[in-house]
Amino acid sequence: MYLSAERSFSKHSVEAYLRDIGGLASFMEKQFPNLTPQKTELKHLQEYIKQINEFGLSASTQARILSGIRAFYKFLLMEKETDNDPTTLLDWPRMARKLPDVLNEKEIEDMLNAIDRSTDDGERNRAILETLYGCGLRVSELVNLKISEIHKEDEYLIITGKGNKQRLVPINGMALKHIDIYLKNIRTHIAIKKDKEDFLFINRRGSPLSRVMIFYIIKDLAEKAGIKKTISPHTFRHSFATHLLENGADLRAVQDMLGHESITTTEIYTHISRGMLKDVIEKHHPRNKKN
User: Fold this and answer.
1) Please, what is the angle between helix 105-113 and helix 120-135, to 10°?
2) Does residue 99 form part of some domain?
């Protein structure tokens, strides 16, 4: 209840946190049978971290487990169930910052051109790709996007992101154009299921599209376009951010549009286009200018 109501975590995140705490509890019951959460010390948690490290779990998985344990002790402190937090001195695994794959502008055009717009699904899928690339949405934000959240006149969307936090995201004319075509020519002929009438992207049975379906659509179009990169709906979000920064957008503005809590998350996109940065230096640095 604390995670869902007070921390606004999604059902998936709550399940992951509870599963991680369950793993900690099982370990403690076997290794330290008489230990309670209140009596747990840093050395006990370090033994658990040592074990999960020996399992070969990735640094990101270990970090998520530690985050769950830390949230658990924050809850115990808040409820005055303990006055001791042994997680404060826990060492976190070193996280390698992996640069995400991005599509260049030609590859995006190739995927758009691979869509068969003579079919109902094709018109819908064109609107989906235009929205993903034009707004930089997460796939969960896309499938949950409501018609009532589209403000066509002012050209922006109201997006509910992680932690149920809302943000305003501009939407370009091309995306609005294809959404409008889809709404007027395709969606209006589908029998929408009760209570699902406000969802924008619908399948043939009148239900909102699933995250998995979006993955299938993207994978299929990538194959048709002859793109060999391993891509997903999130690749369009990466491409959105990268292309904005390459064309001179302000980093803070991109952060706001992506809904990143920390600007350091957005900064990863400044490292992607090394070729562009090299060109900037060659053109503008005094030592590179020809005499």
Assistant:
1) 160
2) no
Nearest-angstrom CA–CA distance, 115 and 111:
7
Residue 1 has pLDDT above 90, yes or no: no
| Catalytic status, residue 151 | no
The residue annotated as part of the active site, out of 162, 167, 193, 224, is: 162
Asked if 133 is an active-site residue, the reply is: no
H-helix segments, 136-172: 139-143
Query: Is 287 considered catalytic here?
Result: no
Q: What pTM did the predictor assign?
A: 0.65
Tell me if 85 is assigned to some domain: no
pLDDT digits 0-9 by tens, 110-152: 999 999 999 999 999 999 999 999 999 999 999 999 999 999 9
Q: In this structure, are 132 and 258 located in the same domain?
A: yes
Residue from 138, 178, 187, 238 carrying the catalytic annotation: 138
Give helix then strand counts, H and E, for the chain: 12, 3
pLDDT higher for 2 or 287? 2
Please count the structural domains in the chain.
2
127, 221: one domain? yes
**CA-to-CA dists, residue 101 to 219, 223, 279, angstroms:** 14, 16, 21
In this structure, the answer to whether residues 29 and 127 fall within a common structural domain is no
Residues 67 and 182 in one domain: no
Q: Clarify whether 17 is annotated catalytic.
A: no
Answer yes or no: 237 catalytic: yes
pLDDT tens digits, one per residue of 194-251 = 999 999 999 999 999 999 999 999 999 999 999 988 888 989 988 998 888 888 888 8
- 30 classed as catalytic: no
Structural domain range at position 39: 2-78
